[in-house]
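[Automated response] Your request has been received and processed.

Submitted sequence:
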Amino acid sequence: MPVVSLPYKYLERLCGSDRKTIIDHLPMIGSDIERILEDQVDVEFFPSRVDLYSTEGVARAMRGFLGIETGEEIYLVNPSSITFSVDENLRDVRPYIGSAVIRDVNLDNEAIISLMGVQEALHWVVGRGRAKVAIGVHDLDKVSPPFRYYGAPVSRSFIPLDYDREMTLAEIMEEHPKGRDYSHIVKDKPVMPLIEDANGNVLSFPPIINGELTRVTESSKNLLLDVTGTDERAVMTALRVLCTTLITAGGRCESVEVNGVVMPDLSPSLRNIDVPSCNRLLGTGFSAEEIADILEKMRYGAEKAGDTTVLVRIPCYRADIMHEWDVYEDVAIGAGFSNLDARLPATFATGHEHPVNALASAIRDICTGLGYLEVMPFTLSNEDVMYTRMQREPDPAALRVLHPISEEQTLVRTDLLPLLLDLLRINKRRELPQRIFHTGDVVLSMQTFQKLALASTHTGADFSEAFATADALMRELGISYTTAESTDPAFIPGRAADIMVDGMKAGTFGEIHPGVLNRFDIDQPVSGIEIDLHLLFPGQRETKS
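Generated structure:
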């Protein structure tokens, strides 16, 4: 989870309360305080609460929680004449763009730092490292509408942020620090996404870098926002969070027309909340009026719609509200968990650890003892990560998502090692060595069972390391095994071996193939291990519907 830095002076000014009161109540709205410094407090929030990844968002929530300002915040969007055109040649590259104008902002240094922080948090949490969503913030007074979003050749040039000379898009991808970090997202595309104004001035080369021309400074008063990406829903989520953050900071929002569509839409969504269901889940006896008052404290619009119903207006920045239960959780937070009565269950029972969990716990102890750090990759993945980048043929037994919400989540994971390699890609700029592992469920042929994967990257990662780790693991598990030469295309031929248990292939270890490393944009050697635990322990196999 990203760490959000909250400078005291800016936070106190926006919140209307003193720092001690704010710090004392931060854990009550769901934050984990990392450190308390002289000038700021650093906190973490769950990734679902992207609206709290800024000083402005925290201040908005805190004003409600402290009773300074309750109820929904009304976000007005005034019309403007500013338009964006989007070219068809971006359809298969980076097709979606959201935009808005923010007028009359007052950006001091702390406000700019907060703005940069929420950008980066959104890039990570919503944008998946800018692959899904990338954000640009520009000084509107330095460019001229209308604006064009189109696919440009790599020979197109402009002055990128933090540079004083023109560079071609190809040079930016090779030489600019942001280009080296994010060029893998677009470098294989037929054209490069580019935003320019009516005079041909370049505003942004998403998802890599903005232009120096539109740099935002303390003297900037009017801002143009662009949010580009491959997922329309994620693009609009990031746009709403960014707009509401800047409105809370004192700006005024104006609309932008993108290919005939007026945006942003900052209106709330409506939902009816069942009072008995809420009380049953929380173990409370709140009336409809009390629940409405509590939700107002949590910055919802809420009013009694009957003895058993509350009409709730959900703020546009609350992308995490997907079910009534999410609202019930905010009722509990607003009421204060310490104020909820604790009651013993009516029935007592004794339980035993599930054999699958017991095995997983033992494996975690062994892997951490071998110097590996546990990670928690997502359950959903896609064919590109699972198979194409691994140089493996797609498995027809994979369970595919019928209506995926993004191209990154199209199937349930069938292996774990590809997900570890993707995490190594994300963390490639971190210090080495990196040794990670994960044990968890995979699904094949509608059956769920456990697998284990380990990956190690550093200059000396090789077959010997993988062999030593696999041997220690099998020895600690008390499993007798033999090895056989592996033909898995994800590993280097001659530097990989299959783990054979009772004549069956139960896993593979070795040195990852350079072609796989290139596809994952990993520039250091990687040794890897993957094991089918249900083949080591047939009695641990678990089938789920």
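Summary generated for your ticket: The first helix runs from residue 8 to 15. Residues 355-540 form a domain with the BirA Bifunctional Protein; domain 2 fold (CATH 3.30.930.10).
If you did not submit this request, please reply to this message.
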